[in-house]
Amino acid sequence: YVVGGDVGGLSQALEVYDPTTDRWETLAPMPTARFSFGVQAVNGILYAISGNINGAGTGVVEAYDPKTDRWTTKAPIPSLRADFASGVVKGVVYVVGGNGGATVGTVEVYDPTTDAWTTKAPITPRFSHTGAVLGNLLYVMGGFYGSGLVADVEAYDPATDSWSTRAQLPTPRANLVTGVINGVIYAVGGNTPNGASVATVEGYQP
């Protein structure tokens, strides 16, 4: 599923890709157009969280049900922000760091079963970073802090509500994406300190 974004103007588009047919389909649009927001799936429901609307943060959380092709509004996130990392651990959504007018390390957790948010231990402030979940831990890497790029990798353990420092990214960068395959977290692309886009791919084995 690909949701919203900025294409010269804010988009509400929701499109789904089927690898078996190599085809795209357009579905019900997201009610609130925005960019630099987070999207996570829990129990077959897609959650679009917070983000940026024309330079201002929004706390809107909207949920999409593929069975009905409909969106519903959920409890808003307490801290309005964009350019954060997110991930799902044991059925709850973690929203980490970001830019809420200032760079923040705030961590908030959304539980779909109660439609409620709680606050957890903060991370080192950063934005335009990325997150990946592996072995019930949430790994956060890269991003910006102030005017500098962050190579730091930190892992969050929900069992202890604590962060630990891990091996740094070999290539400091922001606006990268991650994916997990066979126990390896792959960090892909992004931009470097001089603003140049890169095609760098690096793998991390916890």
Q: What layout of secondary structure does this protein have?
A:
Elements: E1 2-6, E2 10-18, E3 23-26, E4 38-42, E5 45-49, E6 52-53, E7 56-57, E8 61-65, E9 70-74, E10 85-89, E11 92-99, E12 103-111, E13 116-120, E14 130-134, E15 137-141, E16 144-145, E17 148-149, E18 153-157, E19 162-166, E20 177-181, E21 184-188, E22 201-204
Antiparallel strand pairs: 1-2, 2-3, 4-5, 5-8, 6-7, 8-9, 10-11, 11-12, 12-13, 14-15, 15-18, 16-17, 18-19, 20-21, 21-22
Please tell me about this protein's structure.
The protein is an all-beta fold. The protein is built from no helices and 22 strands. A 4-stranded antiparallel beta sheet has the order 4-5-8-9, with no helix packed on it. Strands 10-11-12-13 form a 4-stranded antiparallel beta sheet, with no helix packed on it. A 4-stranded antiparallel beta sheet has the order 14-15-18-19, with no helix packed on it. Strand 16 (144-145) and strand 17 (148-149) form a beta hairpin. The chain is globular, with a radius of gyration of 16 Å. The protein starts with a strand and ends with a strand.
Write a short abstract of this structure.
With 206 residues, the chain is mostly beta strands.
Mean pLDDT: 94
Radius of gyration based on Cα positions: 16 Å
Residue share in helix: under 10%
How many helices?
0
H-E order: EEEEEEEEEEEEEEEEEEEEEE
- What structural class do the secondary elements suggest? mainly beta
Q: Give the neighbour order of strands across the main sheet.
A: 4-5-8-9
Distance linking N and C termini: 28 Å
Q: Please outline the major beta sheet.
A: 4 strands, antiparallel
Unreliable stretches (pLDDT < 50, length at least 5) are none
